[in-house]
From TrEMBL:
Top-level lineage group: Eukaryota
Residue span(s) of domain Riboflavin kinase: 1-130
Protein name: riboflavin kinase
Length: 147
């Protein structure tokens, strides 16, 4: 349903809700990139690959949607790149390929539960990207060849 989906755009300031302080920074795209998402791509959590300024390719998890936890009114695409970076990369070009779907969006009773869920998403993304070799291989190949 709309996957794989490739997206490319500048990393902008997000909603400043301090995901970084939670240990889970999420790189935000502007609306132009979000508007290119096919309608079939439902809100939820996705996994795939990402890179910054055509650098090394890393695994990623992305939240698409309305962020019910924060009562958002705006659609968003927020990417957690599964790599430890030395510095922020605002203004740089983030490329992603979304390969698979992990779960729908959920409301969480507490920040603790939210963090637990995200850590679970990261673990699941690891497993899927390792286990589903074909998806992973094709995705990675396509990704590295796309511009
Ligand atoms: P914002 O509200 O501006 O999105 P966050 O707290 O979500 O702030 O942090 C996101 C920023 O952190 C990204 O725009 C990026 O510059 C930086 N960053 C550092 N490491 C990562 C990472 N592994 N994944 C995503 N963003 C990261
Ligand atoms: Mg963010």
């Amino acid at each position: 349903k709309g996957l794989p989906h490739f997206a490319k755009g500048e990393v902008i300031k997000g909603f400043g809700r301090g995901s970084k302080e939670l240990g889970i920074p999420t790189a935000n795209y502007d609306v132009d990139v979000v508007n290119k998402l096919p309608d079939e791509v439902e809100p939820g959590i996705y996994f795939g690959f990402a890179n910054i300024d055509n650098g090394c390719v890393h695994k990623m998890v992305m939240s698409v949607g309305w962020n019910p936890f924060y009562n958002n009114t705006k659609k968003s695409m927020e990417t957690y790149v599964m790599h430890k970076f030395d510095s922020d990369f605002y203004g740089k070009t983030l490329k992603v390929v979304m390969l698979g779907y992990l779960r729908p969006e959920k409301n969480f009773a507490s920040v603790d539960e939210l963090i637990k869920a995200i850590n679970g998403d990261v673990a699941n993304a690891e497993i899927k990207l390792e286990a589903d070799e074909l998806t992973s291989f094709v995705g990675l190949r396509l990704f590295q060849n796309s511009t």
